[in-house]
Design a protein that fits this description.
Layout (H helix, E strand, L loop, with lengths): L1 H42 L4 H22 L6 H22 L10 H26 L4 H22 L6 H23 L6
């Protein structure tokens, strides 16, 4: 009995580890893409309006990650769909950065968006660290990705016309503050990755 149990236990642990690695990889791609968007704003390769379109796409990816993880599992089909969405988003970031349109990285709107996107990077890194440390379960990651989708959507709506006003940024910051508190709460509760 013991000889059959040990291989099954090891297989289960390896599956959990591979699953955690897969979720962590998806979140790391989110971090990378948000970093590329922020870099494009800082260099003027991206306009605020272009970032609005890219953030709409990031919101869709976060919603898909939420839907895929809310049952606590990530199937091969769900992973493949997220990978396709992330590959398209990556290509779209590259295309927008190289389309010849130039943004003003020193404009008020660009500075506001740069700050918001930097916060996306920071918060996604906190989620990734929580996955790697075992502080976050897949259910918790699903909740957090739903919240990130809301933040990304607010950024997309605010930047749709290429200008982000003070009130729009306050609205985004409110959502980001809420998301930050949720990340802290989920990382410090009693649930841990099994």
């Amino acid at each position: 009995m013991k000889t059959k149990f040990i291989p099954l236990l090891l297989a289960g642990l390896l599956t959990c580890s591979a699953f955690a690695q897969s979720v962590s990889t998806d979140v790391q791609r989110n971090v990378n893409q948000q970093t590329r968007i922020e870099d494009g704003l800082k260099t003027g390769q991206l306009t605020t309006k272009e970032v609005g379109k890219l953030e709409r796409e990031q919101a869709a990816i976060a919603r898909e990650e939420h839907n895929a993880l809310k049952d606590g599992k990530l199937s091969a089909g769900e992973k493949a769909k997220i990978d396709r969405m992330q590959n398209k988003a990556s290509a779209d970031i590259h295309a927008e950065k190289n389309d010849g349109r130039v943004g003003n990285p020193n404009s008020v709107s660009s500075k506001r968006m740069q700050a918001d996107v930097q916060r996306n990077v920071n918060q996604q890194q906190r989620v990734e660290n929580g996955i790697k440390s075992g502080e976050l379960t897949n259910h918790e990651v699903a909740k957090l990705e739903k919240g990130q989708a809301r933040v990304d959507h607010k950024e997309a709506v605010a930047a749709k016309n290429g200008h982000i006003g003070e009130a729009e940024q306050r609205n985004i910051q409110h959502a980001e503050n809420h998301q930050s508190k949720k990340i802290h709460k989920e990382k410090t509760d009693e649930q841990v990755r099994g």
